[in-house]
Amino acid sequence: MAKRILIIEDEVSIAELEKDYLELSGFEVMMKTDGISGMREALDHEYDLIILDIMLPGIDGFEILKNVRAVKDTPILMVTAKKEDIDKIRGLGTGADDYITKPFSPSELVARVKAHLSRYDRLKKGAVPERNSEINIRGLKIDKDARRVWVDGEEKQFTTKEYDLLLFLAEHPNRVYTKEEIFKNVWDMDSVGDIATVTVHIKKIREKIEYNTAKPQYIETIWGVGYRFKV
To answer: Fewest C-beta atoms under 10 Å: which of 70, 89, 149, 214?
Structure first.
């Protein structure tokens, strides 16, 4: 059965180009060109992935992202015409899985979509209880079966990618990973995408689990190399 993709994009020529390339790749695609109908479609129907523009008439992409993420874990790829990091940070912090900046090639978009769908499918299929289903390190508890995290008994809310990144590092303690290695393992992509995404997610995770983000006790920065989960 074909995967269903929802495109919310007000520039009709761009939306139609995205739709054509995705359909040629075997996807079933729905297109909405304003924020209000786009959010209604995203909330009322099930899609395997949403491509969401930031600048939309009616309701902007950030508002749609917040409302959809409150009830669904559908992978969301944000599209921005701006290059400013603040939009990327805001989108990722609100729960987007990734972002792509205009102008982009249709082939890059298709590659991103396939990579996120592949990883999401593996996460769903891999939700089999394990004997060692919990990680407990100095007040940090990660329940791998439930995909939940606590710090000193207080539950912290994580986006899908924040949790994936934290779990990846916690399952490989004391090993130093470069940003490129993290991007490849957590986002399941090599050259496609922007590894600055890793830095943004590390910052958001630290804000939730570290007592002092200036002196992190869990996720250390190894200058000039990458990051290490300290045990």
So the answer is: 214
Question: Is the pLDDT score of 130 beyond 50?
Answer: no
The whole-number average pLDDT for the span 86-94 is: 61
Q: Given this model, what pLDDT does residue 128 score?
A: 46
Q: Which tokens go with 183?
A: 């991007």
Spatial distance between the Cα atoms of 158 and 132, rounded to a whole number of angstroms: 21
Beta strands 134-137 and 140-143: pairing type? antiparallel
CA-based nearest residue to 3, from 118, 107, 127:
118
CATH of the domain at 194: 1.10.10.10
The answer for residues whose C-beta is within 8 angstroms of residue 190's C-beta and 6 or more apart is 183, 184
Alpha helices in 82-172 (DSSP H): 85-94, 106-125, 160-170
Q: In this predicted model, what pLDDT tens digit does every residue of 137-172 receive, in sequence order?
A: 888 999 988 889 999 989 999 988 899 999 999 999
Looking at residues 113-125, what average pLDDT do you find?
79
Domain that holds residue 179: 134-229
Spatial separation of the C-alpha atoms in residues 63 and 76, rounded to whole Å: 13
Write down which residue in 125, 149, 164 finishes a domain.
Answer: 125
Measured between alpha carbons, how far is 138 from 54 in angstroms, rounded to an integer? 39
